[in-house]
Structure formats: structure tokens, C-alpha cells
Amino acid sequence: MTPEETSKLSLELYYAGEISLLDHTILSLNRDMGEFTSFLTKAGSDGRRDMLAEFEAKVAMDKSTGNNLNLPNDSRILQHLERLDAARRGPVHVTA
Asked: Quick one: pLDDT at residue 34?
């Protein structure tokens, strides 16, 4: 997703009552400021970024650095993104 798409989606989720205002703020924050970026993953040539991979990387970094301030927020955002990804892929049918 581009930063604009991520921001739009998070606003829709916030208005639907699916995420808190804090979660919307975290998701919609554009961390790419020209030469400086706080993104941990690379965007594609089209500006899209895998936000699921981004927050997986953020949670891993929070854990490895002992960042207990951001870990709960980043973990919660990751859970939201995992639920959205699962819903996008549709139901899973298990056969024996």
C-alpha cells in the first residue's frame, strides 16, 4: 500500500469502530520524509509498501531492542493487519 492508501484504510477502520484513534494515528503516520525514513522495509518502485511485513519488522525490532514502549502498539497494529490480510484471502478450507 502507498502511505495515502494506508491512511485512507485506517481512517475507514477508525470510523467503522474497528481500530482506536491511536491505532489510526500510528497507521496513517507517513514515516518517509525525503532522505530520512523510519520505515524498516523498502517500498516498491510504485511507492507501495507491504505494511504487514513492515509491522512484522517493527515488532521484531521492538523485541530485539527491548522497546517496551512501542511493542504493545506495534503488536496491536500487526494483529489488525493480519486480520485484514486473512479476510482479503478468504476462508481456509481444511481437508483430511
From this structure: 63
